[in-house]
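Progress report, Aim 2. The chain analyzed during this reporting quarter is listed below.
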Amino acid sequence: MIEHEQLTSGTSVLDLRVAHSDSRPLASHILVLVHGLPRAMGMGRQAAGLLPELAEHLANESGWLVATGTLSGVGSSTGTFCASTWKADLMTIIDRVAQGDVRISLAGFGFGGALALHVAAQDDRIRGVATFAAPADLDQWCGDAEEFHHAVQVAGVVGDPGELLGPEELRADVVTIDALGSIAKIPPRRLLIGHGSDDMEIPVADARSLVNAADGRCELRIIQGAGHQLRADPRMVATLLGWLDRHR
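Predicted C-alpha cells for the chain:
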C-alpha cells in the first residue's frame, strides 16, 4: 500500500509517497529513497519514475516503511535544481517522516547517494546509508561548468529559468556536497556501497574511494556486469533487502 501527499519545501511543492506493508509491519524502521540527477535530454522529470514501485516492493518484502520524494524540478514537483535546494528538500522529507521514535536510513542513487551521505553526516537521526552508483568526487563528476549547466537545462529540472544559478555558481554549489568528507563522519553507523562493475558514467573506482574514505567500515557490493542504472536491477534490490534485514 502506498500513500501520496505533498510537502512545501522553500518555494517548491514536493511529491512524497510512503509505502508500507500490511503483512510485515515494522513501523519504527523507515527507509528514504533518494533519486539522482540524470543528464540525458528530458530525463530529469523521470528521475524518480521507478522509485514508488521500488518503494512498494521493498516495503512488502522487508516490513519497513519506505518513503520516496521527488525533489525540486523532478517529476511533478515544482522548483528548479540546485544542490542546496535538493539538500533542503531531503531534510524536509526526513523531518516529515521522523515522527515519534523511528529509525531512519537513506538509500541514494547516483548524485542522490552523494547527497544522502552529505545529509547523514550532519544528522544523527540517520542510522544508516546505502548508496548505488554514487560519485565520490563531485568536482570530477560535474566536469566543465558550462557543460554541466547545459546538461541540467537539457535534463529538464528547471521550473523557472530565472531561478537557475549561473554555470560557475551552480557547479560550486554541487561541489559543496563532499561525499568523501561526509562518509568519513558516518561510521559506526551502518553503510552499504553498491556499484555496477560496468558503470560507464561513474567508474567503479569511485565506490572503492568511498570505502577507503570510511576506513573500510562499510559493506561493498560490486554488481558484476551492471551499468549505471541500478534501480531496476534485481541484484541491487536483493542486496538492499539483505541490508535492511540485517539491520532491523
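The domain at 2-246 is CATH 3.40.50.1820 (Rossmann fold). The longest strand covers residues 26-34. These observations will guide the mutagenesis work planned for the next reporting period.
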